[in-house]
Amino acid sequence: MKRSHLRWFFPLVICAIAVAVAIVTYLNAIHDELVQAKETQIALEVGNELRKIDVDISNSTSVVYATGNIMSSFRMDDNRNRLVNMLEYILEESSVNYAVICDQNGKGFDMNNKDVDISKESYFAELSADYASGGAGMVMPGDAQSSIAEIMIVYSTKFSGQARGYLIAYLPVKAINERLFREKYLADGQAIITLTGDIVCSRGFEMLPSGSGSIWDKLPSSLSKDTVKLAISQKNVIMTEVPEYGHVIIVPLQSANGGSIVLISKEQMDIMVGKNMEPGYRFCAAMVLISLVFVILVLLANLIAETIQRAAEKKESAEHETDIITGLLTGEETIKEIDSYVTGGTDLKGMLFVIGTNITRDRIGEGGSAQVNDQLREFARQLKSGFRSTDVIGRTGDSEFTVFLKGIGDEKDVRKQCDEMQLFLHDATSASEANDLEVNAGAVLFPNGGKNARDLIDSGRRALTRARQQGTGRLSF
Fold first, then answer.
1. CB < 8 Å & 24+ apart, contacts of 303-312
2. pLDDT tens-digit readout, 129-139
3. Strand 439-446 to strand 475-476: parallel, antiparallel, or no bridges (unpaired)?
4. pTM, to two decimals
């Protein structure tokens, strides 16, 4: 790559890196916003369905508790018909689909006035242990994840003049399951759970190998169960990213110590937000395209500018016959100007200096041609400023310059010009110590040193060789 091209190459590389960083940052920000929006949407949908479930549970619980309180004033054996009517009332006024009254041994009757015995049911032992001394609440059945599972609303009461018994109303989980777990979004698993982690109903978790009815051994290892418990107990909605897995959404029930948990893998979330990322991708593609067009235009502009500059320099050189780097006369034009003077009449006098420098690319090394050209231009400027506008000043070699002073021949004038040239050589080398600039000069007189320009310049070069042998900054005839 040419050195002149480096002026625009590195800025373009930096610009490309900046555009890439900006695009990645923008896409990540858009992705994070879309993920948060999707989590919020899912949480709202789950929350809306949970509110309906909350109403069912709250209403059913209120009806059961109020009815149980009234039943405590009746006897099971003497007032069976009235108690059956109360059980029918519970079904009419709530979402309960079955209700029974039994004694502490599990024997009793249902709302259809049929005798029942629930002592063999899997949940009866828990019911007896928790409510033997009274109280009210809910009990989860052992097969809560089956399609016919139900939540038992329990009211423990002491019937009039008899031992303690239970009013049990069955709230169907199947209806809750069908209402909540609709396929509106992708998820590894969804469940309604209790504060202790028992699964009331679910979709997805039942397919896992564990046979446990607890949610804890079915969660990603990086998700703390304390986070789930805290959200449920404090009634807070949680939407968070789970390290090395994806995302979790927890929405609590307001009427009971439970809530809904939704697990979404990173891949599933990316699929759901992928469509909404398309405008961002199109914008970034447009940015890349614009950047490429910009780079191409910069390259074209640089190429055109360099072409125009070279053409202008060549035109200027052709029109004015000057060196394109230093602005001095070219070697051929220098010879023409000198010959035009020395052949223009008799008794003409003149003095010629051939000045040699070490301004070469080999000396400058890594600086390259651009630094060589800069030093040549500066040296030419200093050289030109020391002579008359009528004098002939040209570049006759890569690092060689020639100055022809018209009308100089008297001894006094020659001595003066030699002193001034010696001072110029001294100043040039002293001011350029850091650059190790070497400058020497050879001098000849016209017509003694030659009858034409080429002879004069050849004589001057021989004098320059003698000056270089004497050391840097020396002038020799």
1. 306/4
2. 888 888 887 77
3. parallel
4. 0.50
